[in-house]
Amino acid sequence: MSPRVLVLLLGVCMLLQYRVEGPQAKSEKGISGSSDDFYGPKTRNKKITPPTKGTKTPVTGHRVSKGTEASQILNTILNNYDHKLRPGIGEKPTVVTVQFSVNSLGPLSTLDMEYTIDIIFYQTWYDERLRYNGTFETLVLNSKVVSQLWIPDTFFRNSKRTQEHTITMPNQMVRIHRDGKVLYTIRMTIDAGCTLHMHRFPMDSHSCPLSFSSFSYPMNEMIYKWEDFKLEINNDNSWKLFQFEFKGMSNKTETLSTPAGDFMVMTFIFNISRQFGYVTFQNYVPSSVTTMLSWVSFWIKKDSAAARTSLGVTSVLTMTTLGTFSRKNFPPVSYVTALDFYLAICFVFCFCALTEFAVLNFLMYNKMKTQASPNLRHSRFRARAQARARAHARKLRKAPVCTIINMEGNDGAGESSHPGSSQRSKPICCKWLKGCKNYFCVIPNCKGSTWQQGHVCIHIYRLDDYSRYFFPLAFFFFNVFYWLVFLYF
Length: 489
Ligand SMILES: *[C@@H]1O[C@H](CO)[C@@H](O)[C@H](O)[C@H]1NC(C)=O
Ligand SMILES: *[C@@H]1O[C@H](CO)[C@@H](O)[C@H](O)[C@H]1NC(C)=O
Ligand SMILES: *[C@@H]1O[C@H](CO)[C@@H](O)[C@H](O)[C@H]1NC(C)=O
Known about the structure:
This protein has helices at about 1-20, 25, 30-45, 50-80, 275-295, 305-325, 340-370, 380-395, 410-415, 465-489, and strands spanning about 95-110, 115-125, 140, 155, 160-165, 170-175, 180-195, 205-215, 220-225, 245-260, 260-275, 400-405, 455-460.
């Protein structure tokens, strides 16, 4: 190995030696070799460099003559130039044509209601004082000349912070054409305000403006014109919109009346809309799953109060947490957003699932108590109540009554625990709520005295059976309605 490397090194040295001796003879041979031998000797013995410079003297001389011409032109045009005065002052308004190039858009901060945009801003106008004759078609100049020329005092009306880039030199450029056309280019990063209407959050889309106008010249002094703008959308690398998607942009021109005069205000509008994935996994999926979890209670035995209560309370608390969590990183807007609405409905579902058990438990307990201790109630009062109920039922024969019937015969658990209950034909509830007699009456037999033909027969012990169908169906229809409304209208 090492001998071979040595031989190789020796060969390379000899080759270099040979080429230093006769560079002109062999310089054309080999692409990589030629570049090597061009730079190799130069670094090794710097005394060879002056001759190469010497060969280039005609080129440099030509450049110098061009340079003198350019500086002569510059000196001529800037000699009597007053950069304090706009071109065409007192004659006609200056027409400034604007063009944009967006380097990056975003991020959009919903909390501060602003967005960041990095642009290169092109302004073109004609300045007759800068006309020149000569071989130059265009003078390309950097930021050093900017202070010696008249530049439009354009400012961004909705900017909160503007940063000009000065590394390595101020990111500005001036081009003066032979006919006096001036192109001024500047790169800047702007944090611009954007009012966000979040009613449809997270299905929201926004129009973020970037408006600019002259600070001192009103419309009769200076007017702006749009030039065809081309926007390079390279979403993949440099646009930092994260959960937003760029939808398009438009432009508009307005006139703004101020005490200082009427100004021409030009506005770019960036349309962006929120991409759905992030919020879905953060909010919609957990809240839906929690709501569904609360229905598990309907499949648990009626007498396991601990299990059913804790399940209900846990789901209600989870929904509360999710609701609070969804408002984090969110501007404290006072209105209800689409997500808030969804979470509120999920909360109501969880709450109803808990309440269903409370109602069921209460009715069962209430019934049990009255049946277990009949002596507690005064017999005369009971008889009167019974008579009143019967009379009332007769009176309301035609009323649309929804009667809850406790059919103990169909419920094995109820019958086994209270064997004597079927003998009683007494309305049990309707004592705590006035008028509820019309709707809720728990009696043992459907064909009893207060039952009327055509009324809905609701078995109190079957509340769970009904809930097993009612809750999922209601949630399903709510979802269909919700997504139709918010995605398509
Ligand atoms: C340019 O040359 C034309 C004639 O060739 C002359 O009329 C004009 O005044 C010159 N302009 C300047 C700025 O020297
Ligand atoms: C928008 O810009 C185009 C040039 O790209 C221009 O023709 C049009 O008039 C502008 N629209 C408004 C409303 O200013
Ligand atoms: C941007 O949104 C506004 C209002 O939301 C709409 O009028 C305009 O047509 C949209 N422009 C584009 C390019 O999508």
